[in-house]
Design a protein that fits this description.
alpha+beta; DUF397; 2 strands; flat; 1 helix; two-stranded antiparallel ribbon; about 35 residues
């Protein structure tokens, strides 16, 4: 997956746990669902 087509997510308080990478479409769907 190209970086420009994905979103990297990490916990800034626990950076040692790595990063989760999801597609932009998946991130947009998650944000939309959270907004209700």
């Amino acid at each position: 997956m190209k970086l420009d087509r994905s979103v990297g997510i990490r916990d800034t308080k626990a950076r040692e746990h790595g990063e989760l990478t999801v597609s932009r479409a998946a991130w947009a769907a998650a944000v939309t669902a959270l907004r209700g």
